[in-house]
Amino acid sequence: MIQATIEALLRKKIGLDGSTIGSRQIARAIETRRLACGLPDQQTYLQQLQTSPQELEALIETVVVLETWFFRDRKPFAFVSRYVRSEWLPNPNHPILRVLSIPCSTGEEPYSIAMTLLDAGLTPNQFRVDAIDISKEALQKARRALYSRNSFRGNQLQQRKRYFKQTADGYELCQLVRNTVKFKHGNILGPLGLVQNNYDIIFCRNLLIYLDKSARFRAIELLDRLLMPQGLLFVGSAETGVITINRFVSVRYPFAFAYQKVKHLGERQTRDSEQERRRNWETSSSLPTHQSP
Description:
Elements: H1 2-14, H2 23-37, H3 42-51, H4 53-63, H5 75-88, E1 97-101, H6 108-119, E2 127-133, H7 136-144, E3 146-147, H8 157-163, E4 164-167, E5 170-173, H9 175-178, E6 181-185, E7 199-203, H10 213-226, E8 227-234, E9 248-250, E10 258-261, H11 267-283
Parallel strand pairs: 1-2, 1-7, 2-6, 7-8
Antiparallel strand pairs: 3-5, 4-5, 8-10, 9-10
Helix pairs in contact: 1-3, 2-4, 3-4, 5-6, 10-11
């Protein structure tokens, strides 16, 4: 009963569907924080959670999944490179390509985006990457830009040799790449305080799978507002089922899991599509379980 109440607090704050990570993992996180607070039982810890925003934040830090690595899944980055070379560079709508990574975790994804854009021929003053995460601990690591071998998986030696310096503590990312990424603490379900609100590309991968139906709908609505017409949205392999084809069209590039936002629809069509989209999202009880190879 107490754990259910705590899970409800997490659902309200960050939209977490507890079943996606399992009750045991949540129970371990609760117990870890209870012991850290030196409290005698879960009831006392619940009272602490209900009165202390700082402790709720600490519990969220313990619960969130931070698994990531550089150039994860590869294909989305390959498509970004192709898009920049063939479409954006020949006909830029504006002088700066604007990219958002949310959630950005410990920085591997937004830094991978930056390296991809540099390798595609952009100069640092031709693009900007905003990176947002709910975990302050993850953001601290991202800003340090110092990584272990575990952050490099598969065939990534070229980028590691080009952009990193090996030190006694790990691999340190060069300042050139670090300067192109701006990190910010934020919750996708709360005010993000973004200066920029029209992005050409948004990466929102492996977040929607952890949200309940209502939170997923709100998150996708936000992404829709933030993305420019004809902009690109990248999601995780298990998240394609919640992206509507009425507002987004699937990009035909294998395993990129990318969508392009369509241009403005007619007023009536937009209203009808909005209603259908809401029905689709609200009635969807589960997400696909496809896994990228």
